[in-house]
Amino acid sequence: MLRSFVSKRFFSSTRASLDTLAFVESAQSKITPTSLSAINAASKIGEPITVIVAGSEGEAIKDEAAKIPGINKVLVAKGTQYDHYLSEELSPLFKDVIQSSNFTHFFTPASAVGKSVLPRLGALLDVQPLSDIIKIESKDTFVRPIYAGNALATVQSSDKIILASVRGSAFPPVELGAEAVPIEEVAATTESNNRTEFVSEQLITSERPDLGSASKVVSGGRGLKNKETFDGLIEPLAAKLNAAVGASRAAVDSGFCDNSLQVGQTGKIVAPELYVAVGVSGAIQHLAGMKDSKTIVAINKDPEAPIFNVADIGLVADLNEAVPELTGKL
């Protein structure tokens, strides 16, 4: 894989003592796995880590967050304005906290929230954010994918404050410990002047594991032809494997499943222990979202399908026959 180096000014060696702030997200009153992955990444800096939680969800997880290993404090930002994680409200909060305590690094998961907050926070602090980092070389040098993951850029920053979002699939989540650290309340001093309001959300619930953090994923593609075949073949196989369900963009655009299941450059980035691709051709955008999986199994009747170029195990067969047979033998 091509590896490039991008220099963004020389790093100053006169930087004072370092301290890291990390944002911990919550979903359904539980810390998201990608947040724990971001903490793992932040620990590579080797400096004290303070975590911040916000809103009602933050209130619900503050005691759990206090047990994250390697941190020294939990900051809680109360207030209904932080519910639903509107980036227009979170960005001024993070700016005030970073500047009031002289934090030198800020880490957030590369989630929908993190990707929305980071550029706004960068604008407020007048620094260049680093998105989707997958490796930490040193306190000022990071590796991130470019060109849909076909190349890696090693980026060095000399900004006084380094802002970075962390690709969850690149760092295993840390395990919660037993001892808790102190918890403090904080508040933003800067007015957000926010003109955005939360209207509603539609949550897709499933008994399957979460796609973003599952150790096994079964994905369906255009080759499944319709929603009935998708549900009839993918769901039983995923159930037998206790796997999350994913899909290619072609399957999502064709209405086979909800767009929250899309894997790829414009969907979720996953790196499970096992990735089973059924009827997925392997377009470059899809490969960008799953090619780091530990073991890739592909089932496709087209022997020339690009998915076989990255598959560890490939089966050229009619999926309507092969998948039910595989499911029955598991």
From TrEMBL:
Q: Which Gene Ontology terms of cellular component type are present?
A: mitochondrial matrix
Q: Which GO terms describe its biological process?
A: fatty acid beta-oxidation using acyl-CoA dehydrogenase
InterPro entries tied to this protein: DHS-like_NAD/FAD-binding_dom, ETF_a/b_N, ETF_a/FixB, ETF_alpha_N, ETF_asu_C, ETF_asu_C_CS, Rossmann-like_a/b/a_fold
Cofactor binding note from Swiss-Prot or TrEMBL:
Binds 1 FAD per dimer.
Ubl conjugation found in the keyword field:
no
Cellular compartment(s): Mitochondrion matrix
Report keywords, A-Z. Answer: Electron transport, FAD, Flavoprotein, Mitochondrion, Transport
Which residues are in the Electron transfer flavoprotein alpha/beta-subunit N-terminal domain?
Answer: 20-202
Highest taxon, organism lineage: Eukaryota
Q: Which GO terms describe its molecular function?
A: electron transfer activity; flavin adenine dinucleotide binding
Q: Where does FAD bind?
A: 222, 248-249, 262-266, 279-286, 300
Instruction: Name the needed cofactors.
Output: FAD
What SUPFAM superfamilies does the annotation carry?
Adenine nucleotide alpha hydrolases-like, DHS-like NAD/FAD-binding domain
**Quaternary form?**
Heterodimer of an alpha and a beta subunit.
Functional note:
The electron transfer flavoprotein serves as a specific electron acceptor for several dehydrogenases, including five acyl-CoA dehydrogenases, glutaryl-CoA and sarcosine dehydrogenase. It transfers the electrons to the main mitochondrial respiratory chain via ETF-ubiquinone oxidoreductase (ETF dehydrogenase).
What the record says about family reads:
Belongs to the ETF alpha-subunit/FixB family.
Q: What is this protein called?
A: Probable electron transfer flavoprotein subunit alpha
